[in-house]
Amino acid sequence: MNLNGKVALVTGGRGGIGRAIVARFLREGATVYAADLTERGSLPAHDDDGSRFVQMNVADEAVVQAAMSKVQDECGKLDILVNAAGIEIEKTIEDTTLDEWNQSFAVNCTGTFLTSKYALSLMRKAAQEGTSASIINFGSYDGFIADPGLAAYCATKGAVHALTRAMACDHGPEGIRVNAICPGYIDTPMLQSFFTGDGSGGGGKTIDQLQQAVRDVHPMRTYGTPDDIANLVNWLASDEARYASGQLWVLDGGLSAQVQQMKL
């Protein structure tokens, strides 16, 4: 088990991707804190998976501090932090309110900042044991190119990309690696809400037609699963990735590699 003896905290740990990461970490032998707004999260009720649930609003500084204090009291260190919590607003900037803009940045960017800020002292303790600690942020391929109607989301993910590089430079000398995973279309509740939202460009198509259309624009003719993301997260969290830091790892089935006209 690659993560035996390690302690991990996953924000958005009861969401689609977050829950898959939690499950993979548990299988790899880690002690895992699943942090989310509610224990149920965005998926149907689940059986006890062996993780330690922490109620957390990542945009609330006092709540984040309390969560890290809990980890300190119970484990004394934190080897792995995964900043997977995120929200998506399907609007152009003209239609986005200031409150919606601020909320997007509060969760996607400020949340990443706060959890990382208050995890650092615990992660230094982990790094002092002789292996590197690992922070894994969540960007998006939308931080490089843009889907229509996702202006605030794209802006937040570009900010996370830049923050990831800065954190890697600042904290690499302390034995703390920082990377970002940049997913494309992944089969999560967020993706399913996109199919029904204004940003989908549905034009009257059925959900099945929209889902197939999204698969067809990928060179691999499919979109990803939460387990696909969890596989890469697991490697970045492990000591096998000891030399990987400051990178933006795109996982999108080849979508952003192709000349876009070739989709026609």
Question: Quick recap of the structure?
Answer:
This protein has 264 residues and is α/β, with parallel strands linked by helices. 41% of the residues lie in helices and 14% in strands.
CATH class assignment:
Alpha Beta
Spatial order of the strands forming the largest sheet: 3-2-1-4-5-6-7
Q: List low-pLDDT spans.
A: none
Give me the secondary-structure category.
alpha/beta
Profile the largest sheet.
Answer: 7 strands, parallel
Q: Give the N-to-C terminal Cα separation.
A: 45 Å
The CATH superfamily bears the name: NAD(P)-binding Rossmann-like Domain
Helix content: 40-55%
- Count the beta strands: 7
SSE topology string: EHEEHEHEHEHHHE
The gyration radius over C-alpha positions equals 18 Å
CATH fold name, please? Rossmann fold
Per CATH, the architecture is 3-Layer(aba) Sandwich
- Give the strand content: 5-15%
Arithmetic mean pLDDT: 90
Question: Could you please describe the fold and organization of this structure?
Answer:
This protein is an alpha/beta fold and 264 residues long. The chain has one domain: NAD(P)-binding Rossmann-like Domain (Rossmann fold). It contains 7 helices and 7 strands, in the order βαββαβαβαβαααβ. Strands 3-2-1-4-5-6-7 form a 7-stranded parallel sheet, sandwiched between helices. β1, α1 and β2 form a beta-alpha-beta unit. α1 crosses α7, α2 runs parallel beside α3 and α3 runs parallel beside α4. The chain is globular, with a radius of gyration of 18 Å. The relative contact order is 0.15. The mean pLDDT is 90.
